[in-house]
Amino acid sequence: MSVYFLNFVLFSIGLYCVLRKRNLIKIIIGLIICEYAVNLFLILVGYKMNGRSPIYAPQQEIVNMVDPLPQVLVLTSIVISLATTALVIAVAIRIYEKYHTFDITKIRRLKG
Amino acid sequence: MNSENNNGMSLIIKTVTRLTVGFIFIYGIYIVLHGHVSPGGGFAGGVIIALSFVNLMLAYGKEELYKRVPKTVLSLFESIGAIMFLSIALLGFTGGYFFYDWFVYKGEPFSIFSAGTMPLSNIAIAIKVASGLFAIFLVLILLRVTSGEEE
Amino acid sequence: MLELHLILIFVIIGAIIAVEIKDLLSSVVAVSAAGLGLCIIFLMLKAPDVAITQLVVEIFLLVILIRATIRRDLPFSVSGRWFFNTLITVVFIGMFLTVAFICLKQLPEFGSPLMRVSSFYLKEGFDKTQATNLISSILLGFRAYDTLGEATILFTSVIAVLVVIRKKGRKEVMEKEDKDEF
To answer: Total structural domains in chain B?
Structure first.
């Protein structure tokens, strides 16, 4: 259970960074930390104590495998998060070209 | 990114890159082809292939690579990957449903030619991921930072 | 599972440094270190596929983030309603933690998952698909629709990046950089 608690702490750090910081790059970093926490939570739910990874080996029989379904979901989720993060970074670079700053309060002021 | 960096890095980096980038590329192909017998798969192998091209580009500068890999080639490869994966899925209708395993020859377990359509799907996903991510990187790098210094 | 806690604490420290440090480049490097620690945790939780993908994706993300932050450590404002913002943030995080701890009681104990769906995959996966890597057999066999949707999202994202960073189509950009091809 303490592992889940540490995981929630990690998510809270990302949430704090998204809500509190004013730099666009810091907000993107907060999003990345939140993605880490969610992926780790899904893997932790599927872990079986003293389990083996779900891959068969040639000359031995492997019992007590861990849950393979959350790993598949996380594998999909990591690539999606990479794609969305690349899109957010592209938007940030475009905002920098237009307003010459990463500060979101100044961007809001310039919008009028 | 600025004008003196256009011709790439120093001679040491160029030499080391020339010696090692082929091994990185081959490792990516190995990860893709063995995706159904060992850890790995289309996503990881595709990103490794994209990273080998990124390595080439960081060492040799953008003009050198942009002469050889234009953007149309990248979009062509990405479309090929998407169409290949979708047609593998659509060919399943010969057996009755979407994503039906239409390979007759199942093959021995623990060999490369096994598991039906899975190696083909892995190759399609790898082509798609590699070309897509390298296109993202190319676009982000080639954007000139001009307006920062003007005003 | 003591080493799991230790590496998770390392990841948390990396995240705190990434959030709180002033320099943007150091922040990017710190978050990348946290991601590599996460890769080791995935390997310890018996998920080698996820570990490989996380490692590779992390390096790609590092390259892109450094591109976004290079030579851009500008001053940004610290004035404004400091107390009000912090209060709202703390209240929000408190609400999240409360709901999370209520939901935590419903979860099964750590180390003994409910495998109602995956027991079918573990039993039938090798016979139906002949793939010895069960993750690959689920990803491309049983749940291939997920992979198709994921490929669609990646395709859409690449097109969106190409559209957002474009040189032509806007008037002043066309006038300024007419001879620039890309």
So the answer is: 1
- In single-letter form, the type of residue at position C130 comes to Q
| Cβ within 8 Å of C, B 41-70 | 41, 43-44, 47-48, 50-51, 54, 66
What are the extents of the domains in chain A? 2-111
Closest approach of chain B CAs to the CA of C176, in angstroms?
10
The whole model's pTM is what? 0.86
Q: What are the extents of the domains in chain C?
A: 1-71, 118-182
Are the CB atoms for A92 and C161 separated by under 8 Å?
no
ipTM, 2 dp: 0.87
Set of chain A residues whose Cβ sits within 8 Å of the Cβ of C157: 83-84, 86-87
Lookup: tokens for C158: 């690449």
A55 close to B (CB below 8 A): yes
Domain A2-111 has CATH 1.10.287.3510: yes
- Structural domain containing residue B115: 3-150
SS3 assignment, position C2? helix
Each residue's pLDDT tens digit in chain A (112 positions)? Answer: 788 888 888 999 988 888 888 888 888 899 999 999 999 998 888 888 888 888 887 777 777 888 888 888 898 888 888 888 989 988 888 888 777 777 777 776 655 5
Three-state SS for C55-103 is HHHHHHHHHHHHHHHCCCCCCCCCCCCHHHHHHHHHHHHHHHHHHHHHH
- Chain C neighbours (≥3 Cβ pairs under 8 A) are A, B
Cβ contacts of A82 on chain B, cutoff 8 Å: 133
Closest residue of chain A to B41, computed from CA coordinates: A75
Q: Which spans in B1-151 are helix H?
A: 11-33, 42-60, 62-68, 71-90, 118-142, 147-150
